[in-house]
Design goal:
1 helix; mainly alpha; about 25 residues
């Protein structure tokens, strides 16, 4: 995972771009 994204914010940004939904 660390190699996949640089940080948590980038991970969530990736998820939003791909319409991945999480429990709010």
């Amino acid at each position: 995972m660390g190699k996949f994204v640089n940080n948590v914010n980038e991970f969530f940004d990736f998820c939003k771009q791909n319409e991945v939904l999480f429990v709010d």
